[in-house]
Design goal:
Elements (H helix, E strand, L loop, with lengths): L2 H30 L3 H24 L5 H16 L6 H25 L39 H21 L5 H23 L8 H22 L6 H12 L1 H15 L1 H21 L6
Helix pairs in contact: 1-2, 1-3, 1-4, 3-4, 5-6, 5-7, 6-9, 7-8, 7-9
């Protein structure tokens, strides 16, 4: 059994334990007079199984089908035991089944976002995705005071914005929720970095390695991941490649976060210095700040 199959089985078991366990707890409470403490413990166990299943669902990057399978099994379980079950047990079982079905529908809708892709294969970015200078109609230098008189800088700025746009496109053609969530983080961080560099060209050197290597390389790897994931048949080498890229997402996030944090280091230092000076003046003047 491959990695996906193991994850599928684990999620199926934990979610069924959560749903069925909640029904059994309700039945035993009604029929055998469980104490409040025992009932709360049973509920906590069910919620724990559900949380574990959700973590495994995200960890193994499963799709909508597992949600619908659990919903169907829960519904069958309710229907089979409807004559012997307590009304509360039936209601909780139906609620669990509907909950899993809705989760599956949401996952399916997210997967279906590829329908938004236009004929060029790109998803149009929202108008406020980048600052005014980064929009396509300003691509030739209009409204770009920092790069208008520097063709070399303008060229690099255009490449940076293009890489951010590529991440945005990937965000809308990636099926599994885990990878899409990670790409969304990378897109947001890279957009903020590009915005900062365009607004503060004197600090551009702090992000040069990120913009010239880390960002384009990350985009390239994720584009390959998406291309492979859309293949109907995947051999072992293809699956191994996808797994390696997926496992590297955490390291990518650290690189993006480190670069973004570094850009604001001077600003944070200035803020701390201003606060220290203000506190020193307050102490010198003997002002009471306790009121």
């Amino acid at each position: 059994m491959n990695r996906k199959g193991i994850g599928f089985a684990l999620v199926l078991i934990t979610w069924l334990l959560a749903g069925v366990g909640l029904m059994i707890a309700a039945s035993y409470t009604a029929d055998y007079g469980y104490s409040v403490g025992e009932t709360i413990l049973a509920i906590f166990l069910s919620v724990g199984f559900w949380a574990l299943g959700f973590w495994l669902y995200r960890r193994y990057k499963l799709g909508h089908s597992i949600c619908w399978i659990v919903a169907v099994i829960m519904l069958i379980f309710v229907l089979v035991s409807i004559e012997e079950s307590h009304p509360v047990e039936i209601i909780l079982g139906l609620v669990a089944a509907v909950g899993f079905a809705v989760h599956g529908f949401i996952a399916f809708r997210n997967r279906d976002r590829t329908a938004q892709v236009n004929n060029t294969g790109h998803v149009p970015m929202p108008h406020n995705a980048l600052p005014r200078s980064a929009h396509p109609h300003n691509a030739h230098g209009a409204h770009r005071p920092h790069t208008a008189h520097n063709p070399h800088a303008a060229h690099h700025a255009s490449i940076d914005r293009h890489n951010v746009t590529r991440l945005w496109n990937l965000l809308h053609v990636t099926y599994d929720e885990y990878t899409r969530h990670e790409i969304n983080y990378l897109y947001t961080a890279s957009r903020q970095i590009v915005e900062f560099v365009e607004a503060n060209p004197a600090d551009a050197h702090k992000a040069s390695l990120f913009l010239e290597f880390h960002l384009p390389k990350t985009v390239q790897l994720l584009e390959r991941y998406t291309a492979i994931s859309q293949k109907e048949i995947k051999g072992k080498n293809m699956q191994d490649a996808m797994e390696k890229i997926s496992e590297s997402l955490a390291q990518m996030k650290k690189i993006f976060e480190h670069c973004l944090d570094g850009l604001y280091s001077d600003i944070v230092h200035d803020i701390n210095t201003d606060i220290e000076v203000m506190e020193h003046l307050i102490n010198m003047e003997g002002l009471d700040t306790g009121d």
